[in-house]
Design brief:
Blueprint (H helix, E strand, L loop, with lengths): L3 E3 L2 E5 L2 E5 L5 E3 L30 E4 L5 E3 L1
Antiparallel strand pairs: 1-4, 2-3, 5-6
Length: about 70
């Protein structure tokens, strides 16, 4: 599924290029039947944060409350 990146940069990471985000960055992926997971799901991500959010939690991956990864 292809998405649209807004406010996303690229930097050199330890294993190639890595995306950089700030509080206003996002990669939006249009809804698709392939994103409707019917069974068990495992999500894995490598995230390096410069600071932990001071107010509430921040979504890293979010599918309208169906599944998400939060900090």
């Amino acid at each position: 599924n292809h998405g649209t990146a807004v406010g996303v940069g690229v930097t050199i990471g330890p294993f190639g290029e890595a995306a950089t985000f700030d509080a206003f960055s996002e990669i939006a992926v249009p809804d698709s039947a392939s994103l409707d997971i019917a069974g068990p799901l495992s999500l894995e991500t490598w995230i390096m944060v410069d600071a932990v959010p001071s107010t509430g939690r921040v979504g890293i991956i979010d599918k309208d409350g169906q599944y998400s990864v939060m900090i």
